[in-house]
Protein: Inositol 1,4,5-trisphosphate receptor
Organism: Gambusia affinis
Amino acid sequence: MSDSASSFLHIGDIVSLYAEGSVNGFISTLGLVDDRCVVEPAAGDLENPPKKFRDCLFKVCPMSRYSAQKQYWKAKQAKHEKDKIADMVLLQKLQHASNLEQKQNETENKKVHGDIVKYGTVIQLLHMKSNKYLTVNKRLPALLEKNAMRVTLDGTGNEGSWLFIQPFWKLRANGDNVVVGDKVIMNPVNAGQPLHASNYELSDHPGCKEVNSVNCNTSWKINLFMMFNDHREEVLKGGDVVRLFHAEQEKFLTCDEYKSKLHVFLRTTLRQSATSATSSNALWEVEVVHHDPCRGGAGHWNSLYRFKHLATGNYLAAEENPGYKGDNPELSSSMDASRSSKRFHGERIKYKLVVVPHGNDIASLFELDPTTLQKTDSFVPRNSYVRLRHLCTNTWIQGTNVPIDIDEERPIRLMLGTCPTKEDKEAFAIVSVPVMEIRDLDFANDASAMLATVVDQFNAGFISQNDRRFAIKLLEDVVFFVADVANSGQPVLDVVMSKPNRERQKLMREQNILKQIFGILKAPFKDRGEDDGPLLRLEELADQKNAPYQYMLRLCYRVLRHSQDDYRKNQEHIAKQFGVMQSQIGYDILAEDTITALLHNNRKLLEKHITKTEVETFVSLVRKNREPRFLDYLSDLCVSNNVAIPVTQELICKCVLDPKNQDILIKTERRVPKEAHPGSVQGEYLGMDDYGDEDEVWLLWTDKTNEKQDKSIRQLAQEARQGNAHDENVLTYYR
């Protein structure tokens, strides 16, 4: 492609938009849990792009049609009571038309991919990280600037996603080619008022200015990140997320916290297949270094690279080992293979791999060296073997057998050093990561950060109604996320996990979502000093005014339940907080339901945590509620993987059959029916020898209000069949 053509903007290019006016900064987002668009001036500029530059990248897309999809959405939302069959037929036809329209859009997009964008044409901007379209809703006012229209990200896009691209300066006119670096006006087709970076600051994100649509003079500078023809699946590109797998040692390059400090290491796994040990802490974002700091693009063998740790945002680098004590060959010959020997070998490594907070640190630059003969200016294939050369020290990365966690009983973290000579065995496989896995990590990361702020608000003793509503919505999204079920408007607490998604369950633990969930379960009930009591009291949760908090806590327990389903490591992690869950049993927030699910098929945890106290708690719940589900919980605690546990069985039997707990049992008697035979009294209790064929079975029990009740089992069954809920419950309880 000629240089002149490459300076134009094309359909399929990936760009960032820099606002210039009263507010300067890149249009960005607040992560995957928030659909608002913002400009954060302090985050970075054209010379020093923001650290989270992935949040600022948009793909230029052609205009899509939405008329059939719009009709289908409207029909789906309208709940017609009459003529249901005709409605269903119509709905199916509309759905078919909607699907057809989506396919036509995809075909059209492929046809125009790579076409030069001209001023006056309509485009759409697809946010790369979230896969959502920048959309203006002309029916809603902006959240802060009330005379403006709201701008958000929309999953499917709609007619509000259509944007006219117009020149800011008069040297360009409609019909001219759009040049990369031009200042443009983004004018929504329907709203008719340009995209605007306002001066209004978000209260919950200090430093972030609202993006809305209003009559203004905001210009947007188009900066190219990657050309459409660089965006290939088979080539390593800036923005790709990869794992680096040391081929010889069969371990992933990982960054994680150990003793409150971040370390870079090769992580040992106990799994049979090392490649299946896919921790989210082993994900690295590739950055291809250019003269223009806002530029990415496809990587060549002669390019320079940075590797950004996805979970923490820090950069891979090499620096002098603080424990380095020189290379003394005499000492090494006398050392045995003990721990002190390994510690000594660590002292011989001059440079070791670390992470640094900023990408402009020269120590974070690396070159990739091919393991086969390649042209230096050819593309780096996405799944290839490479050796890593550290530019600053002119040394090559090498794996070692020196453990960082040397004091642990079973060390699993091996230090990485560098050596001056290139060795064949020190090769890493670049393992590409599916886009959906990255989005899952982004969502978990963002959700964890947002839930942490909710915990802080609870600890401070105040949470606003808006923040509480947002927290509930986020917890609902987390339930759907971990259960791997699409949100189609069904009640969240009824969501059933058909097949556990192990990777998402693992993210719940690794990205500290479970930690924040327990924070929400504990924080509202903490005493905040002499004058201020706790924000909530468990016994007051049933009050109508506390209904939102009760629902929030139920969602928390539902997240815990789905996170541990058939996953032993999470079960053990959650069981560390058993005391918290146990203290919240019986307040109708699903604590007992979660505990039973957690312990049911984990014998080790069952025997450890179920003692006389726990059984007595469940028995008191049976007495208080007279509900059969609490008896089901007790029966679940007797069994693990369809094998009876004698210790727990004995505990439960002793407790339930204790004379003081007789009131929770139902007594069975045989009595003479009303049409009794001569010489007997109706309703009289008979001895064993006096039973006749026509005698009736009667049940005697004590209800919630401590009053004695009795009824024949035949009458109970008849009334239960006629829809008497009370009698049906008594029969279920009796069973």
Q: What stands out?
A: The longest helix spans residues 84-112.
